Amino acid sequence: MIKIKPFKGITYNINKVNLSNVTTPPYDIISPEEKENFYKKSEYSIIRLVLGKNELSDNKLNNKYSRAANYLKNWLDREILIPSKKPGIYIYEQGYELKGKKKKRIGFMALLKLEDFESGKVLPHEKTFPKAKIDRFNLLSACKTNFSQVFSLYSDPEGKIDSILRKFSSDESTLKVTDSDKVSHTLHPITDKETSEEIANLMKDKTIFIADGHHRYETALNYRNEMRQKIESFTGEEGFNYVMMMFVNMDDEGLSVLPVHRVIKNIPSPNEDEILKKASNLFKIKSFEFDKDSKEEVKNTLNKKLSAEFGKSHTFGMYLGTNKYHLLTLKDEDVMNEMVLTEHSSNWKKLDITILHALLIDKILDVKSKNLIKHGSIKFTPDENVALGLVDKKDYQIALLVNQTKVEEVKAIASNREKMPQKSTYFYPKLLTGMVINKHD
Known about the structure:
441 residues, nine-stranded mixed β-sheet, globular
């Protein structure tokens, strides 16, 4: 049974700071350039807590994690950050535009009692990176605080919980901010005990699917396991047994998933003709030639044709920095059974993203997917223009464009206790870090 509960959230004091200057996207999608900009925006930016800078004089006692803890204490003492007097469940609404259509996504934040994945109550869908978990563990150990929430999904086709959330109108306690992508973010606490209990009761039999924040969730598990070994009178209700989580109904139309394109370098044999020849054994290939004047028009044609194949075929875009874009469509998905000799389900083998890695990257490019991140040879982006631009700038050798993963595919893979390759999904819009914070009691 899933256990959630309200909490006394810590929020920025809007009488002392401008929310747009102190909140940021999730730490793991912030570029080095963006990081510097967030540092310049405000001395109270959440970036100083979640993504501190290393200094030459750092040691085990004085480092970016201890500095984050000092910043947190100082900002609380000076009431830059203020804790709520009452525990609450926080409604989080986002308004955004995608492909010319205006959409709204609603969910709520609460504390989830941590569950081991083996219980089947909380399920991941992506692999994680050890280095990132060590970093998050050090931050959690130093600050004993969840600065950003894990983003999760649950199924509620009837929308019972969403209907409860929408009953509550905004009031003077609402926090509002619009980010650089013109996404509006509204946070509103529900401190009514009966409503919190009603939501908790409706959630207790749900399965929770982690959408974003796999590293944070696994870090919270590791931290809980370490802490309970240190406490003689462990009760299971200490603050470290819970993690701050955002819950969104996967059946709501406000939920959007974007594709995550791959851009790769350090390819041993980057010759375009050779790659296409090898690919032609498995893929039907259509090439789109362009010149300087037609490049933008041809690129748009490629993107439209790729999007048109969503849900119909396993099709990918490919660009190697020449005067051609390529569209590759898998001839026969049964080839995955022959070439991927693992005990994965048919659902896993039919995912675009696993076909991309298993066939295009591992076999045709002859680059092992598992080594790409380790050696800094891959970049992920939901923006096809960024992906293609990185190849044009010669920073990377090849861009591989994909269609988005379906929400139902995430559910199926996670339910079968399988994991997709890293960065298989990009849930949009991202939650802002700094809207509300959870400090362990």
